[in-house]
Design a protein that fits this description.
Distance between the termini of chain A: 30 Å
CATH architecture of the largest domain in chain A: 3-Layer(aba) Sandwich
CATH superfamily of one domain in chain B: Alpha-helical ferredoxin
Number of helices of chain A: 11
Radius of gyration of chain B: 16 Å
Distance between the termini of chain B: 27 Å
Oligomer: heterodimer
Number of helices of chain B: 9
Shape of chain A: globular
CATH architecture of one domain in chain B: Orthogonal Bundle
Strand content of chain A: 5-15%
CATH topology of one domain in chain B: Fumarate Reductase Iron-sulfur Protein, Chain B, domain 2
Largest sheet of chain A: 4 strands, parallel
Structural class of chain A: alpha/beta
Helix content of chain B: 40-55%
Helix content of chain A: 40-55%
């Protein structure tokens, strides 16, 4: 299986652990991904304005590059990128007027994109495609007694046209972790927004959201929390220190990308993880469980 | 919403309504005020006007009041309201429309230089770009 890969901005910096672990896991499962030779920022937040085509240029240009790569599937690890690329396709699909205008703004691109040539795929759906049997045989550490809370965030579930699972009661992460031999912890806030980009101007919103999400996961017995979105990751990891400073009774929880956990369960090289990027150090619990 | 205020057609400014409709593409008249959006909104505690009231005010033409409200700037476009709406009203797009009306006349909402340098250096690109997309035209 070969597919193109679009990393987006944050996976090359703060979200490096997501990229290195995801690529290692996929390689181990026999999936070959090729990073696009040239790509642009997707814009992070999909523009919901119907009358502004300018904001669709960045994702469409990347999709043109994906078409030129020759692979039909485009893997977007970052969930924000996934959401934006996929919604851009829905926005212009079968609308020749919008497409004409967008193409008039693109000077460098010679390939025309119509909207039906590329399937944007996220890593959970890709793992579902690979199948539980292959995943199960790749897992080396099978007797790990680890209680994991899966946090979905927004961008893989909403809006409906890009949802990879039920927006109300998704199970895809739990299914994967079940196959990998972890104990799933269900908690009510697992699909709720973390506050997203409000961390820039209104960090109090993120702090309140993070507190609810983390308290709920901890109360339900989780030992670690896994997720996919680099923005959720930043919001839920970093802010725990601030919450703790204000309230000593607050119980922190280590946060990992789901692919980091899978890589550890597969017994892949440990130096793919840069644990200095974690604000809440996951090493003590991982060592206790025999994963490090 | 202003209390005890008689609604007359004179108060409804149709050009603002048209602009919001053009930007959002949403038919707000499908809303029957069940309140599911406000019940589901994770940021409603921080808003001055809850989402279902925003839609009611759009129906009644109170665009001037809405563009002065904090609510569209609290909304982080998580799309929960839209998913929960039993009438298919895309409330998140209405919020975007309200933001756009302000941005298209002011260019920028808030002041980027107000972000502390210490905070700014720590923030990942994804947070900064996401924020710029929603607060700068």
């Amino acid at each position: 299986m070969q597919l193109s890969y679009y990393p987006g901005c944050t996976l090359k910096t703060d979200g490096k652990n997501f990229e290195t672990s995801a690529l290692a896991v996929l390689k181990h499962l026999g999936v070959s991904v090729q990073e696009l030779e040239d790509w642009y920022c997707c814009g992070v937040c999909f523009s919901q304005a119907q009358d502004n085509l300018m904001q669709q240029l960045a994702p469409i240009r990347t999709l043109v590059k994906a078409k030129e790569s020759g692979n039909r599937q485009l893997l977007a690890l970052c969930t924000m990128c996934y959401n934006t690329l996929k919604r851009s396709i829905e926005f212009i699909r079968d609308d020749s007027e919008k497409l004409d205008t967008i193409h008039q703004f693109m000077d460098l691109e010679t390939t025309r994109f119509y909207g039906n040539e590329i399937d944007v795929i996220d890593i959970l759906s890709l793992l579902r495609q690979i199948g539980p049997d292959r995943l199960k045989t790749a897992i080396k550490k099978t007797d790990v007694d680890l209680k994991v809370a899966s946090y979905y965030g927004c961008m893989l579930l909403r809006p409906g046209e890009v949802a990879i699972d039920s927006p109300d009661d998704p199970v895809i992460m739990e299914e994967i972790l079940d196959t990998a031999g972890c104990e799933n912890v269900y908690f009510p806030f697992r699909t709720e927004c973390c506050g997203s980009y409000q961390i820039v101007n209104k960090p109090d919103i993120v702090k309140a959201r993070a507190r609810k999400i983390i308290d709920s996961a901890v109360k339900n017995g989780a030992e670690i929390m896994v997720m996919l979105c680099p923005l959720c990751y930043f919001n839920l990891d970093e802010i725990q220190r601030d919450i703790q400073k204000e309230d000593k009774s607050f119980q922190t929880i280590p946060v990992l990308y789901i692919t980091q956990l899978l890589a550890l369960l597969m017994g892949l090289e440990k130096d793919i993880h840069d644990f200095n990027l974690h604000s809440i150090d996951p090493r003590p619990v991982l060592k206790r469980k025999g994963l490090l | 919403m202003p209390k005890n205020k008689a609604i007359s057609s004179r108060q409804i400014r149709s050009e603002d309504m048209d602009q919001l409709k053009d930007i959002s593409g949403v038919n707000v008249y499908a809303c029957y005020q069940c309140g599911n959006c406000s019940a589901a909104c994770p940021a409603v505690d921080f808003m001055d006007i809850p989402p279902h009231q925003v839609i009611r005010m759009v129906q009644l033409g109170f665009i001037d009041e809405l563009v002065k409200s904090e609510t569209p700037w609290i909304c982080a476009a998580c799309i929960t309201c839209t998913v929960k709406c039993p009438r298919g009203v895309d409330i998140a797009k209405v919020m975007e429309g309200l933001r756009q009306i302000v941005l298209r006349s002011d260019f920028e909402h808030g002041n980027l230089s107000e972000i502390e340098e210490k905070v700014r250096k720590k923030l990942p690109q994804i947070a900064l770009i996401g924020n710029f997309r929603k607060t700068i035209l």
